Amino acid sequence: MTPETDHPPAPAPTVDHEDAFGLEQQFVARGDSPYTRNEKIGRILWNYLGQKLFRLTFHNWYGVRNGLLRLFGAKIGTHVRLRPTVLVEQPWNLSIGDHSSVGDYASLYCLGPVSIGRFVSISQRAHVCAGTHDLTHPQLPLVRPPIMVHDQVWIAADAFVGPGVTVGEGAVLGARGCAFKDLSAWGIYGGNPAKKLRDRPRFEVGEGRA
């Protein structure tokens, strides 16, 4: 069945990793925070107000939670369902396409840009982590590589998607699987580190949906 909207998810913003890393190195050298003043203010407002209000909403108040995320700069499509226990860091770095869902206690750690496509299912306690530290530097400066999750992906319970990973269209990351490298389209992956187990049948976007 044709979905109500047919707009592709917003692409992950372009990130110049060398420039970002160089800036963060300067912060480390000066002993400063890697966050801008606006980011600091936004994090305080979100963590002490927005996220708490998000958590207090009733289980089926999806529109209210989507509205809160949009208020803090997230790009949220139509018919998106995030459970009230979802943890979101820096929602202004988050983009979610139409008809996608995120389960209880999942973590969207959006230090860098996180772009999630349409008809994506992220199950309970999964962790999408767009932040890490540079191991080649003695002071471990923060780096924030983007994550891209394409349409019709399923990230199963307790799975982990690491910084800089692209999950191809229709891919499945099995329960407790850990993806540190890109996952190809329409593949089923499992284990730590995740390895391809087999292929998955291809579907058109929205096929079989009521």
Explain briefly what this protein structure is.
This protein has 210 residues and is of the alpha/beta class.
**CATH C-level name:** Mainly Beta
CATH superfamily: Hexapeptide repeat proteins
Shape: globular
The succession of helices and strands, N to C, reads HHHEEEEEEEEEEEEEEEEEEE
CATH architecture type: 3 Solenoid
> Looking at CATH, which topology would you report?
UDP N-Acetylglucosamine Acyltransferase, domain 1
User: Mean pLDDT across all residues, rounded?
Assistant: 88
What characterizes the major β-sheet? 7 strands, mixed
Helix content range: 10-25%
DSSP summary: helix tally: 3
Low-confidence stretches: 1-5, 10-30
> Which range does the strand content fall in?
15-25%
Could you describe the 3D structure shown?
This protein has helices at 17-30, 37-56, 62-71; strands spanning 75-76, 81-82, 87-89, 94-96, 101-102, 107-109, 114-116, 121-122, 127-129, 132-133, 142-143, 147-149, 154-155, 160-161, 166-167, 172-173, 178-179, 187-190, 195-199. A hairpin with a 4-residue loop joins strand 18 and strand 19 (195-199). The protein contains three helices and 19 strands. With 210 residues, the protein is α/β, with parallel strands linked by helices. Helices cover 21% and strands 23% of the residues. It starts with 16 loop residues before the first helix and ends in an 11-residue tail after the last strand. It has a single domain (17-198), classed as UDP N-Acetylglucosamine Acyltransferase, domain 1, CATH 2.160.10.10.
Short key terms for the protein model shown above:
single chain; alpha/beta; UDP N-Acetylglucosamine Acyltransferase, domain 1; seven-stranded mixed β-sheet; disordered N terminus
